[in-house]
Write a structure and sequence with these properties.
The chain has about 350 residues and is an all-alpha fold. The chain contains 14 helices and no strands. About 40% of the residues are buried.
């Protein structure tokens, strides 16, 4: 049955992409500055639709509200991709309304975070809801910020999913293994198609992945509280830190924190590889994504070996943040010096 669904999903992808290409709908807008790092051709932004279609397999898990709100998040992203909602502020307000409604409707809360003063604050339902809202929004928008290189976002969440599945196979955590296998199949399919410029995630795909994985990981932690909450943070450190770092960076230059630019970490790595080694567009694009995802593969593997050790998880998070910050400033200086010389 699982492989039958996967066959239908694959068929659905090719029909969907053919339809959008023929109708010239939901195609990448390569005129935007932050989109010039992938391809000069217009590619269907259907990754989110494909991923969402796999969620219907979760109906057996009786999580109808998750599927409904995922659809609403997807629609919000599609409206953004179609340029129907151009204002970043309006999109952010819509995100707040949708995510907060989902949290309250499903009573999504966090409890023991192994930080005493924070645990006391979380005893207040309103604070708890707002804290969960903050966490999900950071992941959701951070996922959108790191989108820009082929397979970077989809590869990142594929690694997160594989890490969770690995822990499940070794009976370290309890999850619905059949459901995650199907989602992993879907992510792998999107990964392959994204690798060869057959589809992109767009805002719809990155929003959907950020929202979905943020909720799933919160749910996994609440059901497996023998693991450290900082292991969950480790699994999401990159989009979270990219978001927080980008907000501070843009604020320092009096720019909108939600607006796109071409100075994200992955874009600086791309620039360095392309200029330093005279690489072609697609080669530099793919290499950038694989460097970042390989690093996260190593970090996730180490973290998964010590899921209950909060001190080790904190060290891994701090190490990643420091490494990111160090290389960011080195690459930023390299880019500015290069542009100045030119």
């Amino acid at each position: 049955m699982l492989f039958f669904y996967f066959f239908l999903l694959t068929l659905f992808v090719f029909i969907l992409n053919s339809f959008f290409i023929k109708q010239k709908l939901l195609l990448s807008e390569t005129g935007d500055v932050h989109q010039k790092f992938a391809s000069k051709s217009k590619v269907p932004l259907t990754g989110g639709i494909v991923i969402f279609s796999s969620y219907f397999y979760l109906i057996n898990d009786n999580i109808y509200s998750f599927i409904l709100f995922s659809l609403l998040i997807l629609i919000l992203g599609i409206l953004s991709d179609l340029k129907f909602i151009k204002s970043a502020n309006i999109r952010f307000i819509a995100q707040i309304i949708l995510v907060l409604s989902f949290i309250i409707f499903n009573d999504v809360q966090l409890y023991d975070l192994r930080v005493n003063f924070l645990n006391r604050l979380l005893q207040n339902d309103i604070f708890n809801y707002l804290f969960v809202l903050f966490c999900i929004l950071i992941v959701l928008n951070g996922s959108n910020f790191i989108d820009g290189m082929n397979t970077l976002v989809i590869g990142y969440y594929l690694l997160v999913g594989l890490t969770i599945y690995f822990l499940s196979l070794n009976n370290i955590i309890q999850i619905n293994s059949i459901s995650i296998i199907f989602i992993l199949f879907c992510l792998a399919l999107v990964f392959i198609l994204n690798l060869f410029n057959r589809l992109y995630l767009g805002d719809s795909g990155s929003y959907l992945l950020g929202f979905s994985f943020a909720f799933f990981l919160i749910d996994i932690y609440n059901s497996n509280q023998h693991i450290s909450p900082f292991f969950i943070i480790l699994l999401l450190w990159y989009p979270c830190y990219e978001n927080l770092f980008s907000i501070l960076r843009k604020k320092s230059f009096d720019r909108s924190p939600m607006g796109p630019d071409n100075n994200h970490f992955h874009q600086l790595i791309f620039f360095f590889i392309k200029k330093k080694y005279k690489s072609k567009l697609l080669a530099a694009n793919i290499l950038t994504a694989q460097i970042l995802n390989f690093y996260n593969l190593v970090i996730f593997y180490i973290g998964a070996s010590f899921v209950s050790k909060t001190d080790i998880q904190v060290i891994l998070i701090l190490f990643s943040v420091i490494l990111y910050s160090f290389f960011y400033f080195k690459l930023y200086v390299y880019k500015n010096n290069y542009v100045r010389i030119i």
